[in-house]
Amino acid sequence: MRVKYDNHPQQWAEILSDPKQLEHSLTWFADDRVDSWRHRRMRELVLPVIAGSKDKKWLTVGDGRYGTDAHYLLAQGVKDVHASDIVDTMLKIGAEKNFISSFSAQNAEDLTFGDEEFDYVYCKESYHHFPRPYMAVYEMLRVCREAVILTEPNDILSPLTLTSSIAKTASRWLKTLTGKKIQHHAFEEAGNYVYTVSDWEIKKLMLGLGLRYCAFKGLNDHYIAGAEQALFSGGTPADRQIKKKIMRMIAREDFLCGIGLKKYALITAIIFKKKPDGTIWKDLQAAGFTCEVLPQNPYH
Predict the structure, then answer these.
(1) What is the CATH number assigned to the segment(s) 8-156+186-233+264-293?
(2) Which terminus of the chain has fewer CB atoms gathered within 10 Å of its CB, N or C?
């Protein structure tokens, strides 16, 4: 079956040709903005893995914003990081600015690398863009020796706790009364369907492949227009207002998740191909991850 890929390559080209969009994109190089703080919070979840893997070989997938994920890994002391995206338009600029060191254009569903060429594969907020995301996960697992790490929108419709199920039902009931349409699916302007991830879905995928070790952690986030330009420290009153509002919204969502009324907006899932080496397992647990050993297939 032929698959129509989204318009992200076209979007990157438009960014470089439109002065306003280009100015916006250049903030991705900065690490002192409110928006860079948002993304740093997401990336910091991989620190327990990085701590024992700085001499390992890493691949980032869907890292089109000049290679910001690869840059973070390099800044944390990882020595060998290769950045990739569906097109290398922005990655070339990142390399020219010494923001990243190695890159290539890669289709996540058909990677050109050899089996187990990398130790870790890191895919942050890109899985939901892929037309055939399961195929991409299989490819990422193929080219890694240790683990695939995904950070993606959490599937709020996946199995819920009793409390969150009641809250979800009440929310739907209120929307029905007010005439608001309940949206179960979403599409982005680039043309792609927005896939979401759940720990339940990941565990089913793993069990089908005979994989047993996994770790999960939720995170809340909130975006406000202007966060890319707003300085995290100091800045203008408007900058401080943006920061304050984002932090307030995250704290609100954290509270609701803490009492079981909501699920976290994002989930980081680590799919290990084998039992983790060293202290990574304990470090992940200490960092708040739920670490699980899935059942052994009794017929293998």
Answers:
(1) 3.40.50.150
(2) N
